Amino acid sequence: KSDHSEAEDYEEEHHEDETEHHEDHYELINSLFNNYDQSSSPTHGTKEPVAISVNIQLISVDDVSDARMELIIDTRMTLFWDDKRLMTPECRDENRDCDDHFDLKRREQNLWKPDLYILNSRSARQHEQPLRNGMVYLVAQGRVILSKRLTLTLRCPMNLVNYPLDTQSCPLIICPYSLPDDELTLQWTENGVGILDDSQDGQNKFHLLTPIITREMTLKYSAPDVTGSFSCVNATFSLKRQNGYHMGYSYTITSFIVIVSWIGFWLPVTAVPARVTLGVTTLLTLLTTGNFVRSSLPPISYVTAIDVWVRRVTDHPLAYEVCRVCGGHRSTHRRQEAEETGLCLDRKNRIIFPLFFLVFNISYWTFYLT
């Protein structure tokens, strides 16, 4: 019983100490905000701009849409800046090392925050499940840390000339909305953009290449409502398309269809219905397959790599039909001559068609893979 009562006394004292500690912190934070003006930047009245450091941790790449040309990513964005107005009295002594952290979530609405926006975003959403995903901390030296989890939908201009053997670069550009570079500057932290989970989902259409390229940049505006130079940061996500689906469907299936079309060169010259059926069937199948493969692309005005492939493999059944006409019956009184001519063409085409298809494959893959 004595041990039990001592434990209870210790817990009560510990709880009282924690309560007093939290109350002291709460009173200290309130005192820091007594004469605080959230409409003024931390360097207001000086010639120095506010330096904002940006760090992004990439949680996942949720989707990449070719048709809409957009990238959807799940991120954790953290901003760092110094606001000496919030430095605690104990830390104003330069010889003292202050590492205390204070939670400013209750005071976030009273805190000055940079008016940043994502230049190429279509939408941005902060996660709120199970609670609002965000935090804001104050280091006793006046360092403010603001972090939020955001799902971003970004515009990603794509060049689909090499589709589906392409690599796309999607930017993420963060800029201040109203403060020019003489009042606010943006810079990446040492880590810049990191990846929380290096494992990549095998079902994704793209593979994220690392490292992610980051740089600082300046944008100049000249408009009635805003004029000047603005400090921005840019991160470029390089995405290499996964080719498993297209290799197994777009290329392999169409190649088999082309090979099947060559069977007609071994059919008798007089088997006109069989030759016509084979040629028309393979031609329609290739056209249907090509339209299906291209259905996921936006209506672009230039030729892609898959267009080149489909057009060239479609040439085979077309050429086959031309050869069938040339080797067919020209007239009833020249039947024997027509059969001999058709048989001679078939023997040559048994070599010419596979040879041309082999040369085309070598040229195609050499060009688009290099």
Describe how the helices and strands are arranged:
Blueprint (H helix, E strand, L loop, with lengths): L1 H31 L17 E16 L4 E13 L18 E3 L12 E3 L2 E6 L7 E6 L3 E13 L11 E10 L7 E12 L10 E17 L4 E15 L2 H18 L10 H23 L10 H22 L8 H35 L1
Parallel strand pairs: 1-9
Antiparallel strand pairs: 1-2, 2-7, 3-6, 4-8, 5-7, 6-7, 8-11, 10-11
Helix pairs in contact: 2-3, 2-4, 3-4, 4-5
Family: Belongs to the ligand-gated ion channel (TC 1.A.9) family.
InterPro entries: GABAA/Glycine_rcpt, Ig-like_dom, Neur_chan_lig-bd, Neur_chan_lig-bd_sf, Neur_channel, Neuro-gated_channel_TM_sf, Neuro_actylchol_rec, Neurotrans-gated_channel_TM
Membrane topology: Multi-pass membrane protein
Question: Could you explain how this protein is built, in words?
Answer:
This protein has 370 residues and is α+β, with helices and mostly antiparallel strands. It has two domains: 36-241, Distorted Sandwich (Acetylcholine Binding Protein, Chain: A); 244-369, Methane Monooxygenase Hydroxylase, Chain G, domain 1 (Up-down Bundle), CATH 1.20.58.390. It has five helices and eleven strands. The protein has helices at residues 2-32, 244-261, 272-294, 305-326, 335-369, and strands at 50-65, 70-82, 101-103, 116-118, 121-126, 134-139, 143-155, 167-176, 184-195, 206-222, 227-241. The strands form two sheets. Strands 1, 2, 3, 5, 6, 7 and 9 form a seven-stranded mixed sheet that branches. The protein has a four-stranded antiparallel sheet with strand order 4-8-11-10, with no helix packed on it. A hairpin with a 4-residue loop joins β1 (50-65) and β2. α4 (305-326) packs antiparallel against α5. The longest helix has 35 residues, at 335-369. The radius of gyration is 34 Å and the shape is rod-shaped. Residues 13-18 and 329-333 have low confidence and may be disordered.
